[in-house]
Design a protein that fits this description.
The protein has about 140 residues and is mainly alpha-helical. The protein has helices spanning about 1-10, 20-30, 35-45, 50-65, 105-115, and strands at about 70, 80. The chain has two domains: about 1-85, Arc Repressor Mutant, subunit A, CATH 1.10.10; about 90-140. It is built from five helices and two strands. The chain has a two-stranded antiparallel ribbon with strand order 1-2. The longest helix is centred in the C-terminal third of the chain and has 14 residues, at about 105-115. Residues about 135-140 have low confidence and may be disordered. It comes from Acinetobacter stercoris.
Length: about 140
Amino acid sequence: MSIEIQQQIKKAGLKVTQARVAVLSLIAQQQESMTVKQLYQHLYQSDKKLSLATVYRVIADLEFAGLIHQNQLGRGEAKYTLPHTTDLKLLQIKCADLSCLDHDLLVESLQNIFQKFNVDLLEIEFKKLPKTTLCNREIS
């Protein structure tokens, strides 16, 4: 795999370095996207002693070259994956007041809907928004 990775890096117009090969190889081996800190920890544990700053620079280079893709959901840290494995979708429902709803029932309903369309539900985040004219109807 290392030769394929090196060819990808070269084809993208980047200089082939040990750090770039190590980071891109690790991302290619993973089933799920990872944060920069997770990548750093995996590399450190596998005796590839790169500094965190180096990993950040390599990630920036690989992303700019189009070899990896950044996913950022909500307020969490950005996660990185290969472009062809990116398949995330984001659904935002904005409502002024969800206090009248049963959150567990809402989550269960969303999971059922996503299952019907073969979409993996990764994260649900409820945020309280300022009162607006949205959803201000009374439920009877």
